[in-house]
Design goal:
Length: 103
C-alpha cells in the first residue's frame, strides 16, 4: 500500500512528520511511521483525540515564504461536492480550506 506523507500536530504543540498507509478518520487511531529512519516495527499509534490537526503534505521541507491563508479567494472554483470551511480551534487559531464530500 502507498504511504502518504503527513505532519501531525498534537494539542500540546508537538509536531511529528512521517508516513501513513491506512488513514481513516472514522477510527480512533492510526499508525504513523516517523520521518526519522526507523525500522518497520518502530511505528507510532496515534490517537485522534490527542491531536489538533493532521496535514497531508507534498514534502517535509516546508516553504519559508508561505503566506498563511486568512480568507477565501473570491475566484476559487469549487465542485458541487466541495464546501468552503473555516475551522476555529479552541486556542484561537483559524484554518481556512475546503472539504471534498466529507460531511
Amino acid at each position: 500500500m502507498l504511504k502518504k506523507k503527513v505532519v501531525v500536530k498534537y494539542q500540546n504543540g508537538e509536531i511529528i512528520k512521517g508516513w501513513v498507509e491506512d488513514f481513516r478518520p472514522d477510527r480512533d487511531t492510526f499508525i504513523l511511521f516517523p520521518l526519522i529512519e526507523y525500522s518497520e516495527e518502530e511505528r507510532l499509534e496515534i490517537k485522534f483525540d490527542s491531536l489538533k490537526s493532521v496535514f497531508f503534505v507534498k514534502d517535509f521541507i516546508g516553504d519559508k515564504n508561505y503566506k498563511k491563508v486568512r480568507t477565501f479567494d473570491v475566484y476559487l472554483t469549487i465542485t458541487p461536492s466541495q464546501r468552503k470551511l473555516i475551522v476555529n480551534f479552541i486556542d484561537g487559531e483559524h484554518l481556512y480550506g475546503t472539504s471534498h464530500g466529507y460531511g
